[in-house]
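Annual report, structural modelling task.

Input specification for the calcium ion complex:
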Amino acid sequence: MNKKWWKEAVVYQIYPRSFKDSNGDGIGDIRGIIEKIDYLDELGVDAVWLNPVYQSPNDDNGYDISDYKAIMDEFGTMEDLEELMDLLHERDIKLIMDLVINHSSDEHQWFEESRKSKTNPYRDYYVWKDGKEDNPPNNWQSFFGGPAWEYDEQTEQYYLHLFSRKQPDLNWENPAVREEIYDLINWWLEKGIDGFRLDVINLISKDQRFLDGKAPGLTGHEYFANGPRVHEFIQTMAAKTYGNYDAMTVGETPFVDKDEALKFVASDRKEFSMIIPFEHLELDRKNGWEKISDWKLTELKKLMTDWQYKLQENDGWISLYFCNHDQPRIVSRYGDDGKYRKESAKMLATMLHTLRGTPFIYQGEEIGMKNINFDSLTDFDDIETRGYIKSAQKSGELNSAEILEIANYRSRDNARTPMPWNDSDYAGFSEAKPWLKLNSSYSEINVEQDLKSSDSVFKYYQKLIALRKEYPVFAYGEYKLILPDSENIYAYLREGKDNNLLVLLNFSDQLSNFDLTKEDELNSVVQAELILTNYSTPVEFSIQGELKPYEARVYIY
Ligand code: TEU
Ligand code: CA
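The model returned the following structure:
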């Protein structure tokens, strides 16, 4: 058991644009976060991950960086950021920055130079290719829809952009690019930043043959995800930068399964502390964006278990999350956002905080926020959602009401609506009309409400976080699945040095029976203490019993 601060930590993710507006322009900012440090402290989190706050024209809300060493005007100044960091550090809260180095903005000075001529010193900072007759160099598709290549008239070549055309991919084959990146990472580390979340970091090595993609899914991903030099690039970057600090690094890695994951996080590989997996959030998305797919709890259990075993056998680590700025709200997906909203929010939280890995809470998750209910397609802001809406309109399979319904279910804007602090106008987020519509539920679901009520989702998160600090088994215990065949209940053990946890989670809105008599590990257990439950009546440990709708229990023995 290899002890690390980031294994014991709980991370809170802040989307600055939507957290708190301090100056009444309707846009969240760094001074707004400073106003809410007490709130973070009260929740008890150990680290904050800030979505990008660098200078950016905001084509993809900050994931298109035009200066890595400057702060976006709307968010404040470098002094504000330093103050935020110092104030967090005073409370023993670490600050994790978002690092977007697969691509930059097309308004970054490097790209402005690069596109000028084929002989410009910055030309090879990006990926330029001739077209094939009147077509792009190959069939690779962008994550946001359409070809991943854009024709540039100035030099009559195409450049690669795996995201929007305002996010050209950096050319990692060029050593000068890699040096620039080491430099900016070290610049931030020297400032006192405690780590990084590295955006789509497994896309940095492109197969240099640039062949047409054939694999199902996003066209070309077999050539640009987990490419030939990805581990070489990451290991060298680590050795030259954050590897020399006690930093936490979280690689965001789409198209990575558990075997691939291990290559990024096994401790002897010296790449990342952990990665961000995707598979567990694809269960309702198997048939594409336009159709919500049915899924079974047994699928989720198998998937989580396979990852848990694989990583713990090889001393690898993982981030545990259900929500972030790219994902709709989890109670509306894997829980119940009506009658059992609170119960299911707490049950899902219990799962995240009792598996082996580092839990990540996304702003609003700790008060059980649910999905939006926008009434017009023009309410959506997110570049990805707008792309999907467009292609759904083109394909013609859904009418506009159906498109609106699926957009409300899927959109990244579900996560991006302003944080509801109270039930006043604009939800206490701002004094002006916010940049994005509020979630219409804000008069019932808001922070003030949760701080007042003793059985709120917030209070439950507080308990979970406090328990993690009290019992090392939460961070370090070995995971073991029990009751693998149960269709309604996810049950497992965490086996630690001093004590063990038994976790029982009912994923259904029905009473569900459990029978643990066949679980060898539990045969000799006669007494176990219930340390957490999302129902008010405590229940003595018994080897057989039933769980109420969305009930969660954690026993220690
Ligand atoms: O996301 C990468 C990514 O995989 C997403 O495109 C994801 O598949 C999709 O949003 C799910 O709906 C990262 C950032 O988190 C995202 O906000 C950026 O838009 C993207 O990279 C480009 O930088
Ligand atoms: Ca503001």
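The two ends are 20 Å apart (CA to CA).
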